[in-house]
Design brief:
8-stranded parallel sheet; Rossmann fold; alpha/beta
Length: about 230
C-alpha cells in the first residue's frame, strides 16, 4: 500500500480505522520516517489511537490527541499542533508522515472539518489522500449499498472528498480465505458504487490463502474483537 505523506482515514465506526492507523504509523516509523499520528476520534472512547501512547512513544511516533474538557464534538481542543504538523509534512514530504485517525460515521468526521482547507490543498498537491475504510463484517453495513450510501454524509461533514476505498474486512484471528474473498468482493462493489478506486485490501495473514493484492495487516496491536 502506498502511504501518502498525509493519510486521512475515515469510515464507519468499527471498521478498523484505528488498528490500521497504528499499523501504518509503526510501519512508516520503522522505515525511518518522522511520523505523527493524530487521534481525532472523539466518538469512541473504547478503542482509540491515544490509548497506545507508550507503544507509539517507544517507536518514536509523535501523538496528537484531543483534550476534551467539557467540549462538544464540533470543538475538540488540539491547540495548534495539527495545523503545524500539516504544514511541516507538506514542506518535507519525503521525510515526514502524518496519519489522521478520524472518528466513525458522519458525526466523527465533523472533527476533521476544522482542518479541511489545508488538507484539500495538500490533496490537490498530491501530498494527502483521504481513504474511506469499509468492512464486509460490520453489522450495520453488510451490503455494499449500505456502505456506499454513508460516504456522502461523511464527506459533507468532513468537508473533504475521498480519494479511494480501503478494504479492512476481516474477523481477526478467525479470518479464513473465504472471508478475505468476501471482503474483496464487498469492497470492490463499494468502490464501483462510489466511483472510486479500491486502493488496498488489508487483512491478517491467512494460512492457505493464495490470492493477490492483499497486504498483511500489521499486527502491532490487538484488534477490538480479538
Amino acid at each position: 500500500m502506498r502511504v501518502s505523506p498525509i493519510t486521512v482515514l475515515v469510515g464507519h465506526a468499527g471498521v478498523g480505522k484505528t488498528n490500521v492507523s497504528l499499523g501504518l504509523a509503526l510501519t512508516e516509523a520503522a522505515a525511518g520516517r518522522e511520523v505523527t499520528l493524530a487521534d481525532l476520534d472523539v466518538v469512541n472512547p473504547y478503542f482509540r489511537s491515544s490509548d497506545y501512547r507508550e507503544l507509539l512513544a517507544g517507536a518514536g511516533i509523535r501523538l496528537i490527541a484531543p483534550v476534551l474538557a467539557g467540549t462538544t464534538l464540533d470543538t475538540p481542543s488540539l491547540t495548534g499542533e495539527l495545523d503545524a504538523a500539516i504544514t511541516q509534512v507538506v514542506a518535507d514530504s519525503e521525510r515526514r508522515r502524518l496519519i489522521l485517525d478520524v472518528g466513525g460515521d458522519d458525526d466523527g468526521a465533523t472533527t476533521v472539518g476544522r482542518w479541511s482547507a489545508p488538507l484539500r490543498e495538500a490533496q490537490a498537491a498530491g501530498k494527502a489522500q483521504v481513504l474511506y475504510a469499509v468492512s464486509a463484517f460490520r453489522a450495520l453495513t453488510t451490503k455494499p449499498e449500505d456502505a456506499a450510501s454513508m460516504l456522502p454524509g461523511i464527506e459533507d461533514h468532513a468537508h473533504l472528498r475521498a480519494d479511494g476505498i480501503l478494504n479492512t474486512s476481516n474477523l481477526g484471528d478467525e479470518t479464513t480465505p473465504e472471508h478475505v474473498e468476501r471482503g474483496i468482493a464487498f469492497a470492490t462493489r463499494v468502490a464501483e458504487l462510489c466511483g472510486l478506486p479500491l486502493v488496498a485490501t488489508i487483512a491478517p495473514a491467512v494460512a492457505g490463502y493464495e490470492g493477490g493484492d492483499v497486504e498483511q495487516m500489521p499486527r502491532y496491536v490487538r484488534l477490538p474483537w480479538d
